[in-house]
Amino acid sequence: MGGFAAATAVRRVAEGRYAVELDGDFGIEQAINGGYSLAVMTRALLEDSPHPHPIATSASFLRVAKAGPAEVRVEPLKAGRTAAVARVTLVQNDQALVEALITTGTLDGDAAPVYSIEQEKLPPIEECLEFAPNNGFARQVDVRYDPATMGWLDGRPAGVPEMRGYLRLREPYEPDGILLALAVDALPPVVLNAGASGWAPTVELTWHMRAVPAPGRLAVHGRARLVSDGWFDEEIEVWDSAGRLVAQSRQIARVGRGR
Amino acid sequence: MGGFAAATAVRRVAEGRYAVELDGDFGIEQAINGGYSLAVMTRALLEDSPHPHPIATSASFLRVAKAGPAEVRVEPLKAGRTAAVARVTLVQNDQALVEALITTGTLDGDAAPVYSIEQEKLPPIEECLEFAPNNGFARQVDVRYDPATMGWLDGRPAGVPEMRGYLRLREPYEPDGILLALAVDALPPVVLNAGASGWAPTVELTWHMRAVPAPGRLAVHGRARLVSDGWFDEEIEVWDSAGRLVAQSRQIARVGRGR
């Protein structure tokens, strides 16, 4: 289809109801990507939100979304001067697929951090690998992976549940709050580097937009802290081309059981 | 009042509706603590949940809760074999105060981690400080603080937004999913060690229960990664007496502006 901007387009059909067309390119086989679902939901919310930036998004993934028509329903819960909160639901065939609470606010693009951790090392992009299987997601999203985190591809997982890379869209589209929603769920599951294989379904994902990203590629750093009892956490930090932490996420997901 | 067990008691008044009495001891002045609110909401949810453990809780704090009668409303969204999801709302005077999505599941108390980070250092409890202002919270919750993270008390903040300590209730009550909800929001704001002062209102908090905690004191490690533009994240890890990571949280909050 027509790329990320087109794939996140929303059409207001009634008060708090937006028609969307989920693009199968942003998925693996029939399952629509969770981050793309959140990007669509965020775009719908921002149509009528009193604030422009998705400060906090918490989402429960109830059922797998499929390519095709869907609807985003927005129900405002609070509209304050600093923050507004809404319940946002992605619906398909009258079933809720993703339910989210999204807090919007207004970030200052020029804010200088009072305190920040430092970005962990990522090799220069020339040393990174393009892993482009023949699927729609790779045709839309250009990710260059740190080779240290891609051993799982050759059956030699690093043993540490990490995944890192540079991300941008293949179309001209500079980072914003919508793209950050995609970026926090765009890498292969970090547990592929801890011996797991196959699809790792996200149960819950929360992400925070922390700064307005500068133009250019995003650096995406993912890791788990605990893999146990069939569950793992995946934490993503997204850094912009100016070296600022622009988004943080954590999801809880099920460890894949192989193909 | 009567301690944590009594303060989190719920009474079913109708399908999905539970009467509760918010105990002013679990608050500072008139504001009820966010973690205590989540503990009450979790207890209500677990009354009729198909699974016993709150795997993922994402909460938006809409309005300040006050001591006194309140109601928890539970609306199931999905009941699966691995996970069930419900919308849970704390209501007072017909206003929603806290809205949460809670995923429950069943953790195996004997699960051995496939991968785990290691616990960061915490001094032995004998070297930790009791900071017990004359308030209800300190009468109910026994926290012993790492002195390295308490410089802010004497006007000498460490400069790093961290806070660490051991936590248990003063009543006989061994850790469970309800107490973990309290533990992830029980420390003073980490930004007190980065020069901020005063109340730091939580806007959104998500926490995950990762293992069934062993009896004994909990170790609670808190830190921020970015303080910028009036916002900070606070990440808490809770470790049990057996040295296992039992809970993880991140909240996004507003930096206090002093008194």
From TrEMBL, chains A, B:
Residues 25-104 form the Acyl-CoA thioesterase-like N-terminal HotDog domain. Residues 135-255 form the Acyl-CoA thioesterase-like C-terminal domain. InterPro entries: ACOT8-like_C, Acyl-CoA_hotdog, HotDog_dom_sf, Sec_Metab_Biosynth-Assoc, TesB_ACOT8-like_N. PANTHER family: CHROMOSOME 23, WHOLE GENOME SHOTGUN SEQUENCE, THIOESTERASE DOMAIN-CONTAINING PROTEIN. This is Thioesterase family protein. It comes from Actinoallomurus spadix.
